[in-house]
Amino acid sequence: MDKNNSTIKFREIDYSKDISEINELFSIGLGSHHNKKTFVWKHIENPFGRSFGLLACDADKIVGVRMFMKWELTGEGKTIKAIRPVDTLTHPEYRGRGIFKELTLCGLEKYKTHYDLVFNTPNANSLPGNLKMGWSICTQKLDYKMALVTPYFGKTNFNLIKIDDFVQLEKNDVNNTVITTFPSESFIKWRYKDDLYEIAKIIVEERIIYIIYKTQNHRGIKFNLIEKIIGDSLYFKQALKILAAKTHIFFIYYLENKFTKFRFLLSSKRNEAVIVYNKDRYRVNDKICFTLGDLEASL
Description:
Helix content is 19%, strand content 35%.
C-alpha cells in the first residue's frame, strides 16, 4: 500500500450502521440514483444473497467503498456462484493512493472461497485498471443492436401482466443449453420490480413467451428495450413482432446473444459490450448468454 495510506484501515461493511454514510459518499460521485432504497434493493434484497462489502476508513470516516454483488448462473448441469464487483467509489480527497486497487484485490482474496467466477462490466475509465490487475476480456462478441421490427397484426394471445403474476416456466420450457441467469420467480420479481419495466406474456403456438422490456426515447424515436426474453427461442422473433404491434413501437434495442441473432429488415450495431472476468473455475466466460437486463444497459 502507498505510504500515504498509513492511516487508512480496511474492514468489512456493517450493514447495521454503515449504509447512510456509504450513500453520502456515493452521492458525491455516483449520482442521486444511488440512494438508500437502491442500495438495500441491490445489496440486501438480492435473492442470490447479501453482497460482500469492503470499506476503506480514515479513523471513523469512510473514504472508499467496494461492493461485491452475488450472482448465480446455471447451465451444463451446474450452478455457478459468481460475484460482481460493483458500486465502487473513493472520496475525491483520497484518490490516487491505490485505494480502489487495494479494495478490489483484498475483496477477491478475502471472498475467494465463495465464488467460481468474477465478472464485471467496466466503463472506459475503469477498464485499464481492471486489466492492470490481471483481469481478462471475455472473448465472445456481444453487440448492442438497434432494429426495426415488422409488426404482426394477426390474432394473438397477448397480455401485460404485473410482476407479482409472473410464473416461472418449467426448466424444459426455458433454453437451458447455455449458461445464463435462470429466470426464477424470485430473481425476476427482484430484478424487474421497478415500475419502469413491463412484462408481456405472449402465447405463440401454445408456447408461453415472456418479454420483459421498458420504453425509452432516443432522438425523438420510441424504442422498446428488450431486457430479457424467456421461453423457447424458436418463437422469440414472432413474439417481438407481436409486441411491436401491441405497443405500436417498432424499434427495439437489445443485446445480441446466441438466441437473439435475428434478421430484421433494418438493424445496426450501436456498440459492443465489454465484460471482464477474473477467476473462472469452470472456464465458462465465453459461454454465458447475457441479456440487456443482466448488464444494466440502456440507450
